[in-house]
Every structure is written in structure tokens, then in C-alpha cells.
Amino acid sequence: MLANMANSLIEHKRINTTVAKAKALKLFVEPLITKSKTDSTHNRRIVFSYLKNKNAVTELFREVAAKVGDRPGGYTRIIKTGTRLGDNAEMCMIELVDFNEIYTSAKKEATKSKRRRRGGSGKSQKEEAPAVEAATEEVVEEAPVVEEAPKAETPEAPADESNEEEKKGE
User: Is this model's pTM higher than 0.85 or not?
Assistant: First the structure.
């Protein structure tokens, strides 16, 4: 049963099964993936003795080994999906980690944004500040200067002055 499940996992890159079977499959298939990292006749024969499927062995050594070559372990991921309706068994999806594009792309973006260097945090702010100041200076220089014309005296202004003088004289 484990050999058939391992063949399906290698062929389809993810399968749905129960949690107990997935945990047993993980222990079965991860050493085989580790063996596939070094492509030799001896390793191919060992993996074939477990899988009994030439197509699965070929795909394991070509596609899967190329993607997991730099990974030190943990080639599979188990995601619990709830319970089965018939017997209430815990179901899950087991998948090869590097073949899920949703998780791998999100992790790459997250690592790029979180990368910090010593002394580098102040440089980015200092570099941006002069650029902002230069942009504001250019805007100020380009704006035309408008001179205000002298205000014309309104008839109310002299009347106000005369009223003030009358109040002072009293």
C-alpha cells in the first residue's frame, strides 16, 4: 500500500488520504527522495526495490530531485482537511513541498521584504530624504511669484477714522 501511495504522490505531486496513512507515507517516501538527490545506479536500484515502478523512479530522479536538491529535508507537507463523512476519519492532503506554487511564491516574496542588513536601515531613509527635499525645491522654484497690488482705500476706511477721532475728542 505504501509503495502505491508513494507512486501516486510522485506522479501527481499531492494526494488526499487519512492522517495516519499520510504520516506513514511521509516516513516511507522522504528517505527515497533523499536517495534521489545523488543520481547513481546503486541509488536507482534501491529506490526501485521500494517503489516497483520504473516511471515513478524516473520522475523522482529527474523532476523531484532537481527541485529538492538544495533542501536538507522535509520534502512533504501534510495539510489537514477535516473529517470524512462516512466514518468520521481525519482526512488530509499530503504534497511535495516545492511543487506547490502558492506557498513557494508567497514565501519568496516574504523573505525579500523581511531581509535586513546591519547599518542599512538608515541609508534607505537618508537616501530618500534628499530626493524628497530636491523635489520640493524644484516645485517652489518653478512656481511664479505673484506680487500683491496695493489695496485701494474704501470709503468706509476714512469714515472709521473720523469716528475714532470724534470718540477721542469727547
Answer: no
